[in-house]
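USER: Study each token:
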Amino acid sequence: MANKIRVTIWNEFRHEKNEGSLAQKYYPNGIHAQIKSFLDECDDLEVRLACLDDPDQGIPNEVLDNTDVLMWWGHCYHSDVRDDRVEYIRHRVYQGGMGFVACHSAHESKPFKAIVGTSGALSWGDEYPEIMWNLKPSHPIAAGVPDHFDLELEELYAEPFYIPDPDDLIFAGWYPTGHIFRAGATYTRGMGRVFYFQPGHESCPSFHNPNVQQVLKNGVHWCAPTKPGYDVPQGCPYIKPIYGEWPKNED
């Protein structure tokens, strides 16, 4: 199929290497590989994998230049991501129109904070069942998703969540503890679109949930650029006069 959406799924890929961990049980080939397994069901997506310990941390310029949507999963190693990689990701979103999908603990990742402009801080706790409420069923990211669905176990994320007011708040999570959370939010930044979605703790099977999978499929399609970005150089380019010459200052 021509003009496929080029998706790069980035993952720290360290939790899953701990022998006997729940992360290894649920995601033996890595969280990113599990996400790829259901994104590959979409004929219009071309998916590649990248992780922190790859050369250039899996995201050299040439990879990012050929990525339409970057999906990011990070947790304990945010500080290991190089600042030059973060700045180039931000450039690709703002100037190049690349989409960015932040999964679970990526709320506090360096790229998400740089793109959205937030501390990413939130309240959190142990693992509980979670009900995910669909607040905006008319939104493309909510297509094919019921008015609510259950997650058998997920890490408690709760308000206050220090993010800018989203363009659209699509999903909200509720826990039996009474806590609530803005679990699915979108932003537009420069030329690019951003989607944050909360489920996906490494010791929970959320990425096997068919509704979570549907949301992420929809999120990738929504974040994909609708037209090529300008991809202007970083910094502020000099503006040349369009009609004739600038008026001269006679003083």
Q: What stands out?
A: Residues 5-118+181-223 form a domain with the Rossmann fold fold (CATH 3.40.50.880). The chain has six helices and nine strands.
